[in-house]
Amino acid sequence: MERTALRRRLTWQVGTVTEVRQETATARTLVLDMPDWPGHLAGQHVDVRLTAPDGYRASRSYSIASAWNGGGVELTVEQVPEGEVSPYLAEVLAVGDPLELRGPVGGWFVWKPEQPGPVQLIGGGSGVVPLMAMLRAHADAGSQAPARLLYSVRSPASVFYLNDLKEVAMSEDVAITFAYTREAPPGESRPPKRIDAELLKSVAFQPEDEPTTYVCGPTPFVEAVADLLVAAGHDPARVRTERFGPTGGPR
């Protein structure tokens, strides 16, 4: 049984795009019907492969944005300038088109409803994607574990999942804070700047709360936030990181 599940995860499968949702000017969510999908955990990612007419192939890893509830698989893709894969996914791929996936992949950067204790999520830019899957899984499971999201983003126009986040924030068990780095909305009390120790102390769970913390984003962002957490006294073993970029992992 386990071998069969592993073989399915390692085999390329062809899914069909059933819906496309624009998230920002440069990012959109693709909803895929995957007939033989084995299911996934919140925080896992997939490999996506494109094949050109001349046979040339290119593949990239993308975090899964949806919780697994037996439905489709959602990927949110932000276009990378001069990228090989993201421009096609973010601009060209349409409803009814096929797309090759392999996965799900990953077992460390995942959240499960049965995990004890508070959940602290910290995302930078498109690093919010797997964290959104965790928030959706949290809601689907009816989890009462306290959860907080600290979302670092350039400007209000760059926010992914705005309506979904507003809905999630209505839960008494979930708190969401935005940290704008380039342009803040009118009335925002904090000027545009990066996440710092002061902000973490005011809005994130503290070491004595013993949270499991998930940090995802570009490599410099992840390293800076992880350093701040450890310096504040958080147990490094409870800080899980996922990074992307030239030497990083999934987007």
Model description:
- Its cofactor is FAD.
- Residues 10-111 form the FAD-binding FR-type domain.
- This is Ferredoxin reductase.
- The longest helix is centred in the middle third of the chain and has 13 residues, at 128-140.
- The mean pLDDT is 93.
- The chain has two domains: 2-104, Elongation Factor Tu (Ef-tu), domain 3 (Beta Barrel); 119-244, Nucleotide-binding domain of ferredoxin-NADP reductase (FNR) module (Rossmann fold), CATH 3.40.50.
- The protein has 251 residues and is an alpha/beta fold.
- The strands form two sheets. It has a six-stranded antiparallel sheet with strand order 4-3-6-1-2-5.
- The protein has helices at residues 2-10, 86-92, 128-140, 162-168, 197-203, 219-231; strands at 13-24, 27-33, 45-51, 57-63, 73-78, 98-105, 119-124, 147-153, 174-180, 212-218, 239-244.
- Helices cover 22% and strands 32% of the residues.
- The radius of gyration is 18 Å and the shape is globular.
- The chain contains six helices and eleven strands.
